[in-house]
Amino acid sequence: MSKLPKAIGPYSPYRISGTQLFTSGQLPVDPETNELVEGFEAQARQSFKNIQSILELEGKKLSDVVKLTVLVSDLANFSAVNEVMEDLFSEPYPARTAYQVAALPKEALIEIEAIADLS
Fold first, then answer.
1. What pLDDT, in 10s, does the model give residues 6-42?
2. Is there a contact between 48 and 69 (Cβ–Cβ < 8 Å)?
3. Is 8 a domain residue?
4. Which of 55, 62, 69, 75 is such that its CA lies 20 to 30 A from the CA of 49?
5. Domain of 105, in residue numbers
6. Residue 62 and residue 84 in contact, taking contact as beta carbons nearer than 8 Å
7. pTM for the full model?
8. 55 Cβ partners below 8 Å, 6+ apart?
9. 46 occurs within a structural domain
10. 27-83, pLDDT tens digit by residue?
11. Based on the structure, what is the number of domains in the chain?
């Protein structure tokens, strides 16, 4: 069974260009069930877990992430993103941009994309 969720459209879960790895936005989908996990913090952790699984395919880890883009359906939940990131990352933290959006695929509460350094 794949460690990555099944894509919901015609796109790659990640691509490599030179020494950088670019992920597609990772929804909080459990790859075993292909369903969303419940609750905002659990969704944030699952999205990061999916990113981590991509990185592991290339022999890398979350500490290789240099940039994150975080999309949330409600910025009121954003403090949970900070808490999860403090658990998963250490300084220097990745650069990060965050947006509140009207809706996300599958009615997810969060979607995260990453850029990692492969050098």
1. 888 899 999 999 999 999 999 999 999 999 999 999 9
2. no
3. no
4. 75
5. 14-117
6. no
7. 0.95
8. 21, 61, 62, 64, 65, 116
9. yes
10. 999 999 999 999 999 999 999 999 999 999 999 999 999 999 999 999 999 999 999
11. 1
